[in-house]
Amino acid sequence: MRIITPxxxxxxxxxxxxxxxxxxxxxxxxxxxxxxxxxxKVMPKAPVNVKVGALLFxxxxxxxxxxxxxxxxxxxxxxxxxxxxxxxxxxxxNQAKAARIIAKYFDTATSKDQQAGxxxxxxxxxxxxxxxxxxxxxxxxxxxxNSSSLNYAAQYFGAANQGASLNKVxxxxxxxxxxxxxxxxxxxxxxxxxxxxxxxxxxxxxxxRRNAR
Length: 213
Prior knowledge:
Blueprint (H helix, E strand, L loop, with lengths): L4 H15 L3 E8 L5 E7 L5 E5 L2 E4 L4 E6 L10 E8 L7 H12 L6 H16 L12 E4 L3 H11 L10 E7 L8 E5 L4 H21 L1
Antiparallel strand pairs: 1-4, 1-6, 2-3, 2-7, 4-5, 5-9, 6-8, 8-9
């Protein structure tokens, strides 16, 4: 499976910024076939049993890894229109808290318990807010979840109280009436040392071209 998250994200953001255009995306399944399950409730909705972890979408040529940002909508396996927006990590809003959480742990949550914990932490930030993870909050509740996933959720929520990450967080918000579900993903920014190495490489390339002339 070919996952090209940064390229797809950058292209979609450029489209959204240029003319509020939509990107056609289709849900293809969970990233992990053995993803954990949970029972969740977002007030005033009824409880539902769901898979919790990283999701995969396609635009027809590349695959995008995401986490759900809308626990009240159901996904189908058809193409739907999505608009994209870079999500601010600054401030004390619930969205900013969720953005800081996913920006920090998007790449390191790889096991099924870690991915379930990251998804639960994101939902807790979006719906309950606060300074700590809660599976029994006023708006979002979760149960039938193993203790390992809950421990990861509590750990990951700590990022909500920290500073912004260099990683860019993008939200794809669904513009279809049904079958779509807003998502969060991350476009990783190279670390400073990697940027420095890239800069040195470009300088060397320019010098070689000048010498060739």
